[in-house]
Amino acid sequence: MKLNSAFFLLLILSSAQIFANISLPEIFSNNMVLQRNAEVKIWGWAKPGEEIKLSTSWSDEQLNTKGDRNGNWQIIFSTPDVSGSQEITISGYNEVKLKNLLLGEVWLVSGQSNMEWSAGAGITNAEEAIAGAENDQIRFFSVAHRTAENRQQDLDGSWVQSTPETMKNFSAVAYFFGKKLQEELGVPVGLINSSWGGTPAEVWVPSEAIISNDSLAKAAKMLPDERWGPNEPGLLYNAMIAPLVPFKIQGVLWYQGESNTSNAAYYEQLFSTLIKSWRDEWETEFPFYYAQIAPYDYGDNYSGVEIRDAQRRVRELPNTGMVMTSDIGNIKDIHPRNKLDVGLRFARLALADHYGKEIDDAYAPQFKKAEKDGSKVKIYFEHAEELHFDNGNKKSQFELAGENGNFYPASVKIRDNVIILRSVKVKEPKKVRFSWGNMSTSNLFNEADLPASSFRAEL
């Protein structure tokens, strides 16, 4: 009798293993936020030919599909703009229920340590921020650190609600961004953090995009070995980004660049390739906003400012935007502790640029063009309203160079929000640069009290 009981128990367990087949990637779980007002794709695994049904709490429609011969399936459905907790039920041989879901705005954040940095690691006013982090309308998904030689189908992580306990270990920049967005839009916000401190951009780019390009392949070989993380192309893209594709996101926030000072001359091409490759993978030109790295002593003269200038030039890609950090950095600490203002600047940029809100202080002055006027040079900026120098630091950071390429300080005047430069040592200006040094902190601001980026230009 005991033998028969054991046999039947084994038969039941075997049957469960045969038929209980529907499973989902970790990104689909309880407490998640799905992008509202969108066509959302959900996917997973099942038995080949298994009939799969999907229903949602916000619709009477039932959607159907079957597992393909490789055991994969996917369903696309519409998400409305509705409030409150929602559910999704997926059934086949077994049933999966996703509970306590919200429909709102979903953003992916990525980069290295300044994006990964949490309130628990130490930020300005950390205790106050942590104490006020209880908010059921903000949800976090933290991607675990993993590397992979090939693209992965899944990753480790889970969705959690914002509480003092969960917020203090999440990206502080992302939290402050999400908090501001949630307050202004009045909808839930989901934040997916896939960051790893000390990593160069190459590891976040599909490896084929690096290997197939001679310049980028050369740049990748210039990277030093880091104790904090990998430096081989594609290793983090494969493990920490590819499994998220094509989970519907509204846009991307990026904070990285410090680990590319060893090959700064290639960063514009590298970063542009990263943005384009991610958009190609998601098949959408989502907004891609990034923080310019702050001034810091990298032990040489120009590698850091070359990264900053490369980031400035990447703004030429459509639907991109850059937030400035030079005025809130720390030249002695590569991890400035003011993460609140970085997050708020990201949020104001997104609210103005993507959501169409009227935000007065969303844009920093951006270099537009330089023109020669005899021996003088005129510099024009976008968002140049009430252009002015910092009252405590009015010394000119502009320099001019002639044919020989030697730069000399230039005197400066502001007339009708146009910068006018001249130098008695440069009769025929050929080049101009501003705030050009690793530790040089911009002293030129607009009416939003946001600083102009360092730049260099030919005349």
Automatic annotation (TrEMBL):
Keyword entries, A-Z: Hydrolase, Signal
Sialate O-acetylesterase domain boundaries: 105-336
Keyword Cell membrane attached: no
UniProt protein name: Sialate O-acetylesterase
Leader peptide range in chain numbering: 1-20
Database matches in InterPro entries: SASA, SGNH_hydro_sf, SIAE
